[in-house]
Design goal:
The chain is of the alpha+beta class and 271 residues long. The chain contains 13 helices and 4 strands. Helix 6 crosses helix 11. It is globular and about 60 Å long. The two termini are 38 Å apart.
Length: 271
């Protein structure tokens, strides 16, 4: 995201601050409305007119008001107006910002209700289930053979009985939103935002066998010391790593697996 886009999003986030203190159900409702607005802007090809650098900011704000006044909460309309008054490097950046703000509103509502950590753990659980089940992952991914509504209904049938309403709403967004990396990437995005609201980062730790509580505690202490921030460990199993660990935190990869070392040896021999 460019400097201009970042500044626009920061201004909107400032305008949104009063709403972020809302309690559970209201935060969920407003977050869902923001995500719905993002969806309507995307499918209606409205991001171009709403971010057109050749149009006056107030003119774009008035357009946003005409499009959504009476259809969503006034605070959501005001948020959108704050966003479109700014300058964006690309129209898609507006939709991305709305997605993040909608997700954050749902998560902040969960935090107010005391369920944010539960939501985060449920997102990790859904992510693990999707990763394990190839057929389910394929069925949830957008394709020419599937309709968005059918994918959402499948997700609700599979996960609904086991999740809080906030988590289920976020999973629905993950299934509905098309992006590079698909549903797993969307789930990761939600988990990262949930961790950030709790002042920590997510570390994906892959091992061949389950790590004990003692091992996880030691690893977390090492990562906290190395990164200088609190860490949420998302442990995954992959027998193919053979031994050792693979840790991914943001853009950092720490790979000490036997498989990685064998691959390195093979590459050296081939070279």
């Amino acid at each position: 995201m460019s400097t201009g886009s970042a500044a626009s999003r920061a201004a909107a986030a400032s305008a949104w601050e009063p709403v972020l203190g809302l309690a559970g159900a209201q935060g969920l409702d407003l977050g869902e409305q923001i995500l719905a607005v993002a969806h309507q802007i995307a499918v209606g090809a409205l991001s171009g007119p709403l971010t057109d650098p050749g149009r006056d900011g107030q003119d774009k704000a008035e357009l946003a008001h005409r499009l959504f006044d009476g259809r969503v909460d006034d605070r959501v309309v005001e948020l959108l107006q704050a966003l479109v008054r700014g300058r964006w490097s690309a129209p898609v950046d507006l939709i991305t910002a709305l997605h993040d703000l909608g997700i954050e509103a749902i998560l902040t509502g969960a935090r107010s209700a005391g369920t944010l950590e539960q939501v985060e753990q449920e997102i990790f659980g859904v992510s693990a289930a999707v990763e394990r089940d190839r057929e389910l992952r394929r069925a949830l991914e957008p394709s020419r053979r599937s309709r968005g509504r059918d994918r959402v209904l499948l997700a609700q049938r599979v996960f609904g009985p086991h999740l809080t309403s906030s988590t289920m709403s976020l999973v629905v967004w993950c299934v509905r939103h098309r992006t590079e990396g698909g549903v797993p990437r969307n789930l990761r995005r939600v988990a990262e935002l949930a961790a950030r609201l709790q002042g920590r980062v997510v570390a994906d730790v892959v091992s061949a066998v389950p790590l004990s509580d003692v091992q996880l505690a030691r690893l977390r202490a090492v990562l906290v010391a190395r990164l200088g921030t609190d860490v949420e460990i998302n442990a995954e199993l992959d027998p193919q790593v053979i031994g050792g660990l693979r840790v991914v935190v943001q853009d950092q990869v720490i790979d000490s697996t036997v498989r990685h070392r064998l691959d390195a040896v093979r590459s050296a021999l081939a070279g």
